[in-house]
Specification:
Aminopeptidase; globular; seven-stranded mixed β-sheet; 162 residues; binds coenzyme A; 9 strands; alpha+beta
Length: 162
């Protein structure tokens, strides 16, 4: 799959698909990280395609020399889609001369913690109880997440480029 996969920038024609994906994966058309609301339209992104079908989406935001991965969704897990999209984000960060790539995941997302650490990211900080504040901005954040674990904390992971 990784060989036959194409990655291109997120474009206007992806809007409906991306909105539907966010609604399914992130329960809304907006995502909150560190007390900031991101709408899909505010973000840049990469779309992974296999046989012309969209199979993954990474969205990001660059600010102050840092690239934040806002969302990453693979529609076919375990065949290299997530890794390829993260590689594109790292290349983009280098191209734009960023010093750091970072992201927030939640305490229930043990798969994401494993996935990112296996790809060279390290835990930067734990924002204990931060989801309560995020929930005030985005009430659709569920109370119980993956594996039946209560969603409470934001975990910040980083990959340093310098
Ligand atoms: C986390 C997530 C993005 C990973 O995406 P993915 O497409 O499954 O990632 P990959 O396929 O690149 O890697 C997953 C595993 O498959 C393995 N793999 C990749 N290509 C492979 C292949 N061709 N054959 C066999 N195994 C393969 C990888 O080695 C990796 O295992 P590892 O973590 O032990 O190294 C995905 O699980 C997801 O969308 N989760 C839901 C949304 C989410 O939580 N996003 C992250 C929070 S921002």
């Amino acid at each position: 799959m990784a060989d036959s996969m194409i990655v291109r920038a997120l474009q206007k024609r992806d809007n409906q698909w991306a909105f539907d994906l966010w609604a399914k994966m992130w329960h809304d058309d907006q995502v909150v990280t560190q007390g900031r609301i991101f709408k899909l339209n505010d973000l840049q992104g990469f779309v992974a395609l296999s046989s012309s079908e969209r199979v993954g989406l990474l969205t990001y935001h660059i600010d102050d020399g840092q690239l934040e991965i806002v969302t990453l969704d693979s529609l076919m897990e375990g065949v290299g889609i997530g890794s390829t999209l993260v590689d594109h984000a790292l290349s983009e960060a280098k191209r734009r001369k960023c010093k750091r790539v970072w992201l927030i995941t939640t305490n229930d997302n043990t798969e994401a913690l494993r996935f990112y650490q296996r790809r060279g990211f390290a835990i930067h900080s734990l924002h204990r109880g931060a989801i309560e504040q995020s929930r005030q901005l985005k009430p659709s954040i569920p109370h119980v997440g993956k594996h039946g674990i209560p969603i409470r904390d934001e975990i910040e992971l980083e990959y340093l480029l310098e």
